[in-house]
Amino acid sequence: MTDSSASSSASYAAAGVDTAAGDRAVELMKAAVGRTHGPEVLGGVGGFAGLFDVSFLKDFDRPLLATSTDGVGTKVAIAQALDKHDTIGQDLVGMVVDDIVVVGARPLFMTDYIACGKVVPERIAAIVAGIATACAETGTALVGGETAEHPGLLGPDDYDVAGAAVGAVEADAVLGADRVRDGDVVLAMASSGLHSNGFSLVRHILAARGIGFTDRSAEFGGVVGETLLEPTRLYTAPLLRVLQDPALTGAVHSLSHVTGGGIAANLARVLPVGSWVEIDRSTWSPTPVFRILSDLAGNTLESSEGTWNLGIGMFAVVAPDAADAVAAAITADGIPTWRAGTVSTAARDLTGFEQGAKGVDGGAVRLVGSYAG
């Protein structure tokens, strides 16, 4: 008589799925995940669903939940080429959790999903450790996740990552275009580099020039791939400190996370219809990696403004009388922040402006002038 359990297990292994490796990966990541758990998290690691106590929402007048989901795109190809997986998790948290704070919400918890061709426990643990470290930095509990082995669909060293997060905000504290007024100041916050957008273009440029991710380059300051893997800057904690500062109550009217679509389109999404902004390029110097890539492609920096962040990772639209204080607070928290433009509702010809994006009928934005050297 055949043991059906053993037969099923053997068949799964023959198909290329190693459940024991998955269990080892969970054991390796437990400590890192556990460090993101406060008393609100129930049940620990390994349950079918993560549990999070939201009793505190009873103290809200009208609690709203905010949710976001994303991945890190083809940046994972560089991590795989270098066999370096400890930074990609921060990229995931940046893409997901920093979208939560844009509406003024405090992130509560996050889950992740990793699809791979073969479970290598140490690799999976490194990815999740990066996610957990970034979750801890943003005050987000990592309450669950899934690692799925897809042999035959993905190569043994291939993987992709995605995640989703949930936050909470009082209804009357939600940030957005409806709060923006004529004369508001647009503050720009520095990015750490490419973040997690436009890597298909990056890979195309390097391939066309015959440059490999593992090559050493004086221009890139070392191994090319290591420069490109600079993790996404996290904005959540500094922004929440500003939003919760009694001296700055109501100062921030809207926020924009500069991700896919580039600079103008993302800012236009958080401005009201009928308003416009000219972002002054002379107020900042794009991060060196953008200049290097543009030179390799034989393009101008201006030609990639709809693809890369070019040194700006987040915008804040703030009341003019509080702009200097907000900029100083965020800069003191380790993120260089500066005035980049002013909102206007005056009538004008908007030819050449980016108007709204991603289905949002927003304001109009264009970049003017030349970049600082």
Molecular structure report:
One of its GO terms (molecular function) is phosphoribosylformylglycinamidine cyclo-ligase activity. The protein folds into two domains: 17-173, 2-Layer Sandwich (60s Ribosomal Protein L30, Chain: A); 177-368, Phosphoribosyl-aminoimidazole Synthetase, Chain A, domain 2 (Alpha-Beta Complex), CATH 3.90.650.10. Helices cover 31% and strands 25% of the residues. The chain has helices at 4-14, 19-34, 76-82, 88-100, 121-138, 199-208, 224-228, 236-243, 262-268, 288-297, 323-332, and strands spanning 41-42, 51-52, 63-71, 106-116, 141-149, 159-170, 185-190, 216-217, 222-223, 252-257, 276-280, 312-318, 337-342, 354-357, 360-368. A hairpin with a 4-residue loop joins β8 (216-217) and β9 (222-223). It is globular and about 65 Å long.
Number of helices: 11
Report the major sheet. 4 strands, mixed
What do we call the CATH homologous superfamily of the largest domain? PurM-like C-terminal domain
Helix/strand class: alpha+beta
CATH class of the largest domain: Alpha Beta
CATH topology of the largest domain: Phosphoribosyl-aminoimidazole Synthetase, Chain A, domain 2
Name the shape in a single word: globular
Please state the CA-atom Rg, rounded to the nearest Å.
22 Å
Q: Just name the CATH architecture of the largest domain.
A: Alpha-Beta Complex
**What distance lies between the first and last C-alpha atoms, to the nearest angstrom?**
78 Å
Name the strands of the widest sheet in spatial order: 3-6-4-5
Low-pLDDT sequence parts: 1-8
Strand content: 15-25%
Average pLDDT score: 92
Helix fraction, binned, reads 25-40%
